[in-house]
Structure formats: C-alpha cells, structure tokens
Design brief:
This protein has no helices and 16 strands. Strand 12 (137-151) and strand 13 (154-168) form a beta hairpin. 0% of the residues lie in helices and 52% in strands. The two termini are 25 Å apart. It is globular. Strands 7-8-9-12-13-14-15-16 form an eight-stranded antiparallel sheet, with no helix packed on it. The protein has a four-stranded mixed sheet with strand order 4-3-6-5, with no helix packed on it. The chain has a two-stranded antiparallel ribbon with strand order 1-2.
Length: 269
C-alpha cells in the first residue's frame, strides 16, 4: 500500500520519529513526497507500536508528536523445528491494486535465516465524481535476516533490506519514476543478568534513500522539463541497558527497605 504521512496528536513530519527495526529513516524529497513510511511494507513486519507524545527518549530525541516503531521479531527455533513460513495476497477494486508477500524462515536452536518479500501494484483510482486520479505505483521489497542464538537469552542479528518503487504517479505537477532505499542493521540483545545489568540491547543501522521526481518521464510536460533528484543517508546506533536498583544497606537509621525497581527498555501504549 502506498503510504501517506502519519500524524499523531496533530503533529507529523519531523515531529514524529519513525524507526524501522530500530533504525531511524528520513525521506529524501525536500517537498516530503516520500515520508519515511513510503519505504515500509506493513505486512512484512511482525509488530507496529505507536508511542504517543514524548513519553520516552529511548528511541531518540525529538518526536514531540510521538514515535512509530516497525519491528520484526523472529522467535527462536525449537529442537524439532526447522522451517516456518507464511504468505498472503490482497486486492482492491478501486485502482485495481494487487499485493502479495511471503515470509519464510529456517533454522535451529542456535541460529536462523529468514527471507521476506513483498510486491504491490496499483493503477489510478476513480474518485466520487467518476474522475480518474493519478495514483498508480509499483512497489517491491526484499529482506534477509541472519540470526545467531547461542542460548535463549542472547541474540545477534544482521538484517539487509532493499526497497524499490517505480512509476509513481501524483496529482501534482511531477511524478516519481523511481525511489529506492537500501538498509543494513545489526542488533545484539541479551535478556539475562550480567554483573549489575539485567539486560542489554544495542543496534547499529544504515539507510540510503534515493528519490527522483520529474515532469516528463510519466506524462507529457506542459512546461520546460524539470528533474529533482534527492538523496538521504541516515546512520547511527543506540545502546540500552536495564538494571535493578539494589535496596539500601542496613544501618542504624534504616528501619525498612525498598523493593527493587526494574527499569524497562521502553514504555509502550
């Protein structure tokens, strides 16, 4: 499905943080014709979390309107499990929109490989007055996840993803003959006490967005030919630790002790 700019509490664009598998992504077009969600195929993610407002800064600064997390979570394989998968398809009559996806994983208790693919295509749709609106597009994406799980509490995962969009039509003066995003992510998780830490999660990410708009590739230009290429590279990392506060040591002034308090990674609503 072709994406629009999400909004939370009346705020959008740079007032929202959008993270794909823990990595921040920014669109390339200066006129915001490719919001971060334009590079998302929702059916290829396991969980979508919306955090309203600035409840937490765990996922980065800004985000006064909120944070949207698109996350994949591959459960560890059991001793007798080797293969799992799912597939789906959808159709919408208005615009003749077609979507298909497949998700296949194979592994053992110590590791896994997961492949996810998506394809969607739509023509122009017809509005309530019977007029044809320019809205056609073709999207496709492919994702490969490689995970190492030496035990139930530890996971190291490498993710590679490619998104491609072609022949994207707009009602305005220009169209997008191509849009691309290449992503790489590395995540480490340990959900077990180690020293004074109860848990640790760290990730690094890289997103390379290319977006091209012009007024002649997909239509007859009614003015001079124009082309607007734009690129956006976003990379970074994040490290989070969870610890339990120890009760105060006994002493002559202490008559009661306080129960340990766990600090979660994030607050979700």
């Amino acid at each position: 499905m072709r994406a629009s700019t999400p909004s939370s509490r009346g705020q959008d664009e740079t007032q929202l943080n959008v993270l794909l598998d823990g990595g921040t992504i920014r669109g390339g077009c200066p006129n915001r014709m490719d919001p971060p969600t334009a590079y998302v195929a929702p059916e290829t993610y396991d969980e979508v979390t919306v955090i309203k407002g600035s409840q937490t800064v765990v996922h980065g600064g800004g985000g006064s309107g909120g944070t949207v997390l698109f996350e994949r979570d591959t459960p560890s394989f059991g001793p007798d499990e080797r293969l799992r998968g799912q597939a789906g398809a959808g159709y919408r009559a208005n615009g003749d929109a077609k979507e298909v996806f497949a998700d296949v994983a194979s592994g053992t208790a110590s590791g896994y490989a997961r492949l996810i693919g998506n394809y969607s295509d739509a023509n122009n749709y017809t509005d309530g007055d019977g007029d044809e609106m320019r809205s056609a597009y073709t999207h496709r994406s492919g994702t490969a996840l490689l995970g190492y799980t030496p035990n139930e509490a530890t996971r190291l995962e490498l993710g590679l993803e490619a998104f491609r969009g072609d022949d994207i039509l707009y009602a305005g003066p220009m169209d997008a003959p191509e849009m691309e995003n290449d992503s790489a992510r590395l995540t480490f998780e340990r959900d077990k006490a180690t020293g004074f830490l109860d848990g640790l999660k760290a990730n690094a990410y890289y997103n390379d967005v290319h977006h091209l708009m012009d007024n002649y590739s997909l239509r007859e230009p009614d003015m001079m030919r124009m082309q607007v290429p734009s690129d956006a590279i976003t990379f970074g990392g994040r490290r989070r630790a969870r610890s339990t506060a120890a009760p105060p040591p006994p002493g002559p002034w202490a008559s009661t002790s306080r129960a340990p308090t766990a600090r979660p990674f994030a607050t979700r609503t």
